[in-house]
Design a protein that fits this description.
Order of helices and strands: EHEEHEHHEEEHHHH
CATH architecture: 3-Layer(aba) Sandwich
Distance between the termini: 12 Å
Radius of gyration: 17 Å
Shape: globular
CATH topology: Rossmann fold
Strand content: 15-25%
CATH superfamily: Vaccinia Virus protein VP39
Largest sheet: 7 strands, mixed
Strand order of the largest sheet: 3-2-1-4-5-7-6
CATH class: Alpha Beta
Structural class: alpha/beta
Number of helices: 8
Length: 220
């Protein structure tokens, strides 16, 4: 039997893609970056916003989209304090991406940071999946699919989390810290193929494997 076809928009280096692959999807990723370490054979390098037409979207059984989130992220304050710039793009993309996905009629998930204007999102945390990173992210489901209640966070059992943002060995004003080494960062995320900058922009595959298992049952 052929696998259901899925489109991963703003796929980056494939954290979300990998989880969906584990759940049983055949995934095509789209991103403006080169995709050198993207973990799949089907990769389209290009501007996602130029590909949001109904005819193209309807070629797939399911769509995941992760519009850039720098405008909403709480780490924006840390980057500002460190004198680093933040691209104000996320707020400009959320609405047009959602509108295009709704118009397609294809079941979809939109992922972003919890501060983003998602509609009735399911919030996932790394501690719920036995990971050292917390990385709370929201997932909005649309066009006929739904998600089970999120597994509870286990911050107490997790202990001091490992941060994957900013730079390695950063001192965080609140008293936390980021990963000391690449090995620690990769283990914390459950990702063994990415570089630091890619890890900072990714989500753990455990999240989308949990989501994908539910979605694939609903669309089969």
């Amino acid at each position: 039997m052929s696998k259901p076809q899925m489109l991963d928009l703003f796929c980056g280096a494939g954290g979300a893609t990998t989880g969906y692959q584990r759940a049983g999807f055949e995934v095509t990723g789209v991103d403006l970056k080169h995709g050198k370490r993207y973990p799949g054979e089907a990769y389209i390098r290009g501007d996602v916003m130029e590909r949001l037409n109904v005819e193209s979207l309807r070629l797939f059984d399911f769509i995941h989209a992760s519009p850039p989130c720098q405008s909403f992220s709480i780490t924006k304050n840390l980057r500002n304090a460190q004198g680093n710039s933040v691209k104000e793009t996320g707020g400009d993309l959320m609405d047009p991406v959602r509108d295009a996905l709704i118009a397609s009629g294809v079941p979809f998930i939109i992922e972003n940071v919890v501060q983003a204007p998602l509609i009735d999102p399911t919030i996932l945390c790394g501690s719920s999946f036995g990971l050292a990173v917390r990385r709370h992210r929201g997932f909005e489901a649309g066009n006929g699919i739904s998600l089970a209640p999120a597994p509870a966070c286990d911050h107490k059992g997790q202990g001091r989390p490992v941060g994957i943002y900013g730079g390695m060995r950063d001192n965080i004003p609140s008293g936390g810290r980021t990963a000391h080494t690449m090995d620690e960062a990769r283990e914390a995320m459950g990702i063994d193929w990415m570089l630091w900058g890619e890890l900072c922009e990714s989500i753990p595959p455990a999240y989308t494997e949990w989501i994908g298992t539910q979605v694939i049952d609903q669309i089969s």
